[in-house]
Amino acid sequence: MMKKFILFFVLVSSLLLATQFSNAEEFESPVEAPEIHKMGGEGSLRIEECPKACAYRCSATSHKKPCLFFCNKCCRKCLCVPSGTYGHKEECPCYNNWTTKEGGPKCP
């Protein structure tokens, strides 16, 4: 049981790190950010807007499934997703400050 937990933790941590350090904003033809990203700020989204905001946030990563899972979880709690596909977490303090038990970032 403990072995499975450690394997799961290593896998999730690796995926989150890969998401954090991917060249997410280096596209040849960048996609225009949806209108909901232009509002910004904590609590600026409704729960039903989270999937669209997270689809854009995770559009540049090669690890879409875990990115979408954690982004939607964070969005439902914070009602905010930072603008862009990477960084800008200071726009959503709740999203930025929610960490795992080990102290790493929970939200992509």
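(the above was protein one; protein two follows)
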Amino acid sequence: MEDCLFCKIAAGEIPSNKLFEDDKLLAFYDIDPQAPVHFLVIPKQHIASAAALTEDDAALLGHIYAVIAQLCKKLGVDESGYRVVTNVGADGGQSVKHLHFHVLAKRSLAWPPG
């Protein structure tokens, strides 16, 4: 999508502090972190939100969660815990219309959020 911020980041048109990249995904640190560890994982393919996912995206979602687990282990937060969040729509707090997963760790995360 031409005007999508995350598509531009995935294409390398906008710089990011990359944590992981392969042919399907990009993980990078959030520019406004809400926890000592806060990174985003995005598919390189434009998908508007979790509401747009279908059964055909099952392998992509499995890959996303496997990469999140690997990165959390690498960052040493796999045992202390972390939160994975994806927002959908305006009421859900989605500010960029591209599927993305926030991973937050290294602080106590209250429930319910927000």
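Reviewer note on protein two: The radius of gyration is 14 Å.
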